[in-house]
Amino acid sequence: xxxxxxxxxxxxxxxxxxxxxCSSSKALYSVHWYRxxxxxxxxxxMILLKGGEQKGHDKISASFNEKKQQSSLYxxxxxxxxxxxxxxxxxxxxxxxxxxxxxxxxxxxxP
Amino acid sequence: DGGITxxxxxxxxxxxxxxxxxxxxxxxxxxxxxxxxxxxxGLRLIYYSQIVNDFQKGDIAEGYSVSREKKESFPLxxxxxxxxxxxxxxxxxxxxxxxxxxxxxxxxxxxxxTVV
Lengths: 111, 116
Description:
The complex is a heterodimer.
Chain A: E1 4-6, E2 9-13, E3 18-23, E4 28-36, E5 43-48, E6 54-57, E7 60-65, E8 70-75, E9 84-92, E10 100-101, E11 105-110
Parallel strand pairs in A: 2-11
Antiparallel strand pairs in A: 1-3, 3-8, 4-5, 4-9, 6-7, 7-8, 9-10, 9-11
Chain B: E1 4-7, E2 10-13, E3 19-25, E4 31-37, E5 43-51, E6 54-57, E7 64-66, E8 76-78, E9 87-94, H1 100-103, E10 106-107, E11 111-115
Parallel strand pairs in B: 2-11
Antiparallel strand pairs in B: 1-3, 3-8, 4-5, 4-9, 5-6, 7-8, 9-10, 9-11
């Protein structure tokens, strides 16, 4: 079953923060995050494997609450280059080895 | 440089015809995947393969077929049985096991298929 992302779309000014959420009804083994710019291939951002784990690089970080089957992506002090569509991909304990992606969250950062 | 190549970038097909989309990777990844992307629906899994000569259906496999005769190649055939084939198709590859934690999936640049 497809994970649910929220919000569906968000518009920011440069320097503002954003949070994108990903929720699944299945027990999760891992959560991946990808960003896709228009007309391009999705690009891997990070993967979270353990409950409560938090990862990040630059000003983009993510957390994974294994008990709630939820992950959140945090974008801090957003830049114009952060614009694009963000997808979470979830891997369940019952079916490792394949990702089911959410419907995507479109982020637009304005000057 | 290692990567994953999809061809062609644009493809036009007449109704009732089968068409094959190419996907080749030189990343030495064991696993390969095909996803379909439609506006507002994210990426939906068609087929995936974790080892040569073996593959599994994804959520929307009806009307599609694949083969995995070589580690580097995972072609997708869109058959005439696929009722609504017009879409953007993405191929991806990944390591399996613990190695995926460092690299995730690597996607190709996609093939846009239009039925005319």
